[in-house]
Every structure is written in structure tokens, then in C-alpha cells.
Protein 1
Amino acid sequence: MNRRALLLMLLIFGLLSVIAILQSQPAANPTLDDLRATATALGTPIFTQVFPGLAVLDIQAIRLRNPDADRALTITRAENDVWTIPNNEAGVSLDADTASTIARTIVLLHYQRTLPLPEDGDLTGYGFNPSGILFVEVLLKTGEGHVVAVGALSGQRTTYYALVDDRQEIYLLERAPVDFLITQLAHPPLT
């Protein structure tokens, strides 16, 4: 009986040793394609930035605009890198933290995927009748500019349809950041 117990203990010890060795091996760094394949298999979307490489400090001015309601919020960066309201004649002040959050939201704006533009050019099914519900206009310190035109919510109501600059695709933007920008336009961060 002692031999069997000893043999069983050695077998268990050997098995535990193999498991410990396998777990101590460094994990291989997966490629982006591996991550996309895994996420697709799990039903989890992979997000990609709309403006890769854009930094908050690159932005000189931001304008959020509702094209139908003639409502806009414009903020600019002063020489001391503080966000301000241009031509502030009303004497109100801008909540600097919220202004910085608006800029970070634009920098981190991401999309799930893109769709080809319809061949007939009709974008009404995407919420562009003819405009959209929100224009996000960004002016960089280099003088370059970007525009994101946001249309309707998608069928799942988790993403918005959007057009970006002159790119020939329809972007599916994550809903939460766009909702945040719409809220800032409706209720500007002014004190």
C-alpha cells in the first residue's frame, strides 16, 4: 500500500510540476489581427480611433453645432493653454474641466466599423436629411481642420452613423461619447 501511495504522490507531483512550468511561460503578444479575431468570435467589437495620433494639445478650437437649430458652442485654447470662449461679451466663464473633457472626448472618439457609402448617394436612412444632428468641427494648431457630421442612431441604438472629413465611408461611432457632446451643446459648460 505504501508503494502505491508513493507512486500516486509522485504522479501528482509530476503533474503539478508540468502545470507550474506551463503557467510560468511568458504569454505571446497577440497581434491586432489575433485580437480582432478573438473579439469577433466573442461578439465584442474592437474600437479604432477616428483621428489616430491626434492629441489634445494639437487642438486650437472646437465648435459643436446643431445645423438645424442654429445652436453652437465654440471653445478656443488661449496662449496659456486654457480653454476660453471667443469674444466673450456676456461675461460668463467656461468650466475648464468640462472643456478639457470635450477635447479629450474628440481625441479619443472611436468607431466600431465603417460602412460603404450608398451607391445612389442617399444618406437619409442614416439620419442626414440633409444635415445631421451634430457637427463636431476641430481646428488644429497647424491650421488643419476636421469635421465629424453625426446622423441618426443605428438600429441597435448603440452607435451613431457619422461622416468624417471627406472620407468615403459611414462610421459607426460609439453612442456614449456622442451623447456627451450633444449634452454639452444643449447645456454648455458655462458658469
Protein 2
Amino acid sequence: MELNEAFGLIMKGVESTMSDHGFSVVVPNGTEKGAVPVAVKNGSTVLTYTGQKGSAKIEFLEGKISLLCAQSQAAQAVDDDYKKITMTLFNPETADSRDIKYIVNDFSDGIIEIYGTKNKGSKKLPQPVSKSEAKSGAAYYDLNTLGSRFVTIFPELKEIYRTNVTKYGEFLADDFFLNYGNAKVRETVQKNNPTQMKKLFNMLNEIYNDGTNQTQSVIVVTILGSLYDDENLLANCVDYMGDMTLSVIETNKLLRKKSVRAKLEHPPLYKPKKQKKTPAFLNSLNGGN
């Protein structure tokens, strides 16, 4: 069989395991519709997956096919971040269904070993990233961690957070904060109690500094961007915001424009099991880059 055909069969075989662990395949720019989304570079052929838990690569190089995993998401990961989990000799020209099945089982076991047991349909809340993991660089704070830490400050929202995760199988931050969380932030900022302000912003600053790009965007745009309509409220925050001060101020200026704000207030509908992308309204804030 052709190498691309083999990759297509392997991709189909590991699809369930990848999906169960929150991974979606990365489609390289220029990939034709219906083609296997592999990237060819420096003699290697690579199929890349990404998710909140990190990223994974299936790589064929010099007669060997390997599974490599990283804690960073694909957009941020570099070659040194990836660790080889398993490798086997592979010749696509002589390979048959048994060879494909062996690779699929081997790689699926590797994903489960690195990223945990299957959680599809589980009612347990996803585990937040710990402070030690974030500080060591082993993981980045994700949206679930933001939600989990937020409701420790506002415990009255814990059941709403739990319902959000249970309903969608993951934490949908836009839905939670636009409908519930932002009201608590606004109330805290209006009262401007130093103790409560420090408690809230210490958490937001910590997660922003060691968070994924998506998590940083939710903090700056979805949460603190909601203060665009009241400069006095934003002024209350300035002494507490740390490294994100400039980004928050510039974002609030942009959100005073109706056209930009509409994209924040009406995010895209939830679509399960699709690769997560930067929210459309954030692209507008960044000038479409």
C-alpha cells in the first residue's frame, strides 16, 4: 500500500482513542479536501493531533513509525517538547491489515498511558492543572483550570460550572462567563474591596501568566473585556492586573466598537469533537492575524 493510505488507516484506527482523550487532528494548510492531513518535512511524514492535554505526533521516518507526545499544545510545541513513546519498523509497501492493527493498538495504548484512561461519558469533572505542573512547564493552565479555580472564589457557581461540564463533556468558558461568571467579576470590581480584589486578580494573573493562548484570551477578552462600558470599573482593576494590564486596556477600547463587541456577545455555536480554534472575535481584535 501507499504510505498515505497506511496513514489514513492508522488515523481511522486511533480516532476513537484520540477523541476520548480530547485530541483532534491538525490539518496542514493546503491539504486537499478528503486527503490524509499529513505534513512532509525533512524526509519525515507526520500526522499531528492537539488538545487541551497537549499534542501527539505519528511520524514515519527512515523505515520506522513512531508515536511522540508533548504536554504543550501543537501550536506552541517545538521538536524538543516531544518524547518518543513507542516506535516500530514499518514498510508500507509490504504492510497488511495485521501490521496496521498492531500499530493502531500500540499507539492507542501509548495515548492512554500518557494522557490517562478513557473519559468518554464520565460524570467526573476533568482534573485541573496543578500549580506545580504549570510552574515546572510540564503543562499550561487550561480553560477547565480557570473555571475550577474561579468557582473556588465564587462557590455559589459550582453547580452551574458542574452542569456546564456535564452537559458539553468539557468546560465551555464563553457560555459560563458570559451568562454567569462575568456578573460576579463586575460585582467584585464595583465593591472594590481590596481583599476580594486581590483574591480574584491573584488567581487571574497566575493563570494568565502560565496559561494557554486560549485561556489568556478568555481572561482578557471574555472576562475583563466585559468592563468596556465603564471606565471607572476598569480603573479599579489597574493596580491589580500585572502583566495583562496593557492587553486588557487595549481590548476594552476595541470592545467599545459595536461591530467587535457583537462577536464577543454572540460566540459561535458549540460544535462537539472539532479542533478548537481561536474565537472569531479574538481574530478581529488581532487584526485577523
